[in-house]
Every structure is written in structure tokens, then in C-alpha cells.
């Protein structure tokens, strides 16, 4: 009886937070669905009536839709590859004892706390500027012509900027998993004559698989909504317009709330498809 009473009290105390959280999620989603079926132009007549699925057809058949999906997936995939590869490498290096280990770990994690707009501005003006940027000076030092990164290699530049910001997160998660590795197992493999590459492939990497899948899932959720870095650097030009940025252009620049809302629904569908795919991977790794 006391257990049932305590459970009821716990539900009662949690109810306000759950209601607020549901409202926080469901109200914007409901409004997005509602406006996606309407021809709503705030500065050009307001609500012009019900359009049905016309906004969905217009958005998916526009010339910018599939290139934006392609740019989104390329950026997400590129950032995941870089952050997981170098995250594993940094985690293994930071797990080794050396002088100043604590300071180095703090410096490695520090970029994660920099705002996306600030990091994008730093990379744009201090590193990638074709005239006064650090990369331009390095290119001239070696006798090469400076590269205009944001126009000649735009997708790679965005991937590089975003990877720099998310690498500390991946390193922190993977470092935590590395520290829980059984050292006796590694020592036994070393005594049996297993080379470092085989020890990494058969012992360390399987141990890190769960942490890698968690990093993969969490980063993908946030990377699908990447916006600030593109807004600050290329503003969607040179093939860097992602699905999120395309929605922004339709809603704020074109002042077409209905068309932008339909794009938002497509973005939700894409995010759910990717999330379901990743959850299957995570589930398989967690079950093993």
C-alpha cells in the first residue's frame, strides 16, 4: 500500500514537468502541421486559405530540395567520420600518462564550449580568409597560391568547422570508455605477441563500439539541424544550403510560412528516418 501511495505521489509531482515538456514539443509541432496545409504569407496578405498538400508538392519538387538533402547528409556524414576517427585517436593518446595530462585534456575539450557563431567567425576570418588568414600565409610560405576555402571547397570547409566544434564531445565520451578498458586483457594479448594493430582491432575497438554508437546517435541528432555555421560563413551559397537553411530561407527570407512549415515536416521525417536507422545500430551494439 505504501509503495502504491509513493508511486502515485511521484506521478503527481512529475505531472507538471511532463505536461510542460509535452506542450513544449507538441504545440510547435501542431502549429507546423497546421501552417503546412495553409497559404500563409505574413507580409503579403496573411492567411490566404487552405491549400492542402500543395505546399508539400511545391517544396519537394523545387530545384533546391534534393541538393539541400544531399548537402545535409554530406555534412553530417563527413563530420561523423572525422570526429569518430580523431576522437578515438585522441582518446587513446589522452589515456596515456604524460606530464600536464589534465591541462591537455581541458584544452582538448574547450572548443565544445565555444558558441557555433563564434567558432565559425574565427575559422572564417582567422584561418580561411584567402588574404589574411593563417592558411593563406602557410600556403604563401610554401610557395603555393592561397585557397579561397569557402568558395572553392565550401562543403569541406563547413565540415572542418563543425568537426572542430564536435570533436571534443566525441573525445570526452570515448575517453571515458577507454578508461574502463581492462588493462589485464591488453597485457595478456601483448604477452601473447599480439601486435598493437591487432590489439586495437580485436580488443580496444569492440570495447569502444557502444561509446561510438552513442556519439554517432547524439551528434547526428544535432548535426541534422546545423544552421549557425552556414549562416555565418557561406549563407547557403556554393552548394552548402542544407535542409534547415532552405527552410529558413522559405520562412524568413521569402515570408512563406506555409511552404517553410512543409519543409519542416520533411525535416522531421528525414530526422526520424536517420534516427530509426541509427537506433537499430545502437540496439545491436548494446545487445552484444
TrEMBL record:
UniProt record similarity statement: Belongs to the binding-protein-dependent transport system permease family.
Protein's recorded name: Sugar ABC transporter permease
Transmembrane segments annotated in the record for this chain: 12-37, 69-94, 106-123, 155-175, 208-232, 263-282
Superkingdom of origin organism: Bacteria
Entry GO CC: plasma membrane
Domain ABC transmembrane type-1: 69-278
Keywords attached to this entry: Cell membrane, Membrane, Transmembrane, Transmembrane helix, Transport
Its membrane topology: Multi-pass membrane protein
GO biological process: transmembrane transport
Subcellular location: Cell membrane
Organism expressing this protein natively: Palleronia pontilimi
SUPFAM superfamilies per record: MetI-like
InterPro entries reported for this sequence: ABC_transporter_permease (IPR051393), MetI-like (IPR000515), MetI-like_sf (IPR035906)
Amino acid at each position: 500500500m505504501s509503495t502504491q501511495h509513493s508511486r502515485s505521489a511521484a506521478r503527481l509531482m512529475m505531472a507538471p514537468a511532463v505536461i510542460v515538456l509535452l506542450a513544449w514539443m507538441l504545440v510547435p509541432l501542431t502549429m507546423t502541421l497546421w501552417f503546412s496545409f495553409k497559404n500563409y504569407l505574413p507580409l503579403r496578405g496573411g492567411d490566404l486559405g487552405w491549400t492542402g498538400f500543395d505546399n508539400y508538392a511545391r517544396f519537394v519538387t523545387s530545384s533546391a530540395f534534393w541538393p539541400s538533402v544531399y548537402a545535409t547528409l554530406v555534412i553530417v556524414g563527413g563530420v561523423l567520420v572525422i570526429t569518430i576517427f580523431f576522437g578515438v585517436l585522441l582518446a587513446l593518446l589522452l589515456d596515456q600518462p604524460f606530464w600536464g595530462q589534465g591541462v591537455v585534456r581541458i584544452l582538448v575539450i574547450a572548443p565544445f564550449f565555444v558558441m557555433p557563431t563564434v567558432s565559425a567567425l574565427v575559422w572564417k576570418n582567422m584561418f580561411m580568409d584567402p588574404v589574411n588568414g593563417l592558411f593563406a600565409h602557410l600556403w604563401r610560405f610554401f610557395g603555393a597560391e592561397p585557397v579561397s576555402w569557402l568558395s572553392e571547397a565550401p562543403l569541406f570547409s563547413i565540415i572542418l568547422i563543425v568537426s572542430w566544434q564536435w570533436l571534443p564531445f566525441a573525445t570526452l565520451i570515448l575517453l571515458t570508455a577507454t578508461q574502463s578498458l581492462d588493462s589485464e586483457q591488453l597485457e595478456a594479448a601483448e604477452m601473447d605477441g599480439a601486435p598493437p594493430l591487432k590489439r586495437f582491432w580485436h580488443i580496444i575497438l569492440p570495447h569502444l563500439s557502444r561509446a561510438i554508437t552513442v556519439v554517432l546517435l547524439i551528434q547526428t541528432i544535432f548535426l541534422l539541424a546545423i544552421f549557425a555555421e552556414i549562416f555565418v560563413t557561406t549563407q547557403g551559397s556554393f552548394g552548402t544550403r542544407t535542409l534547415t537553411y532552405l527552410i529558413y530561407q522559405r520562412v524568413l527570407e521569402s515570408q512563406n510560412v506555409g511552404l517553410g512549415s512543409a519543409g519542416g515536416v520533411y525535416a522531421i521525417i528525414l530526422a526520424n528516418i536517420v534516427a530509426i536507422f541509427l537506433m537499430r545500430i545502437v540496439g545491436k551494439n548494446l545487445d552484444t
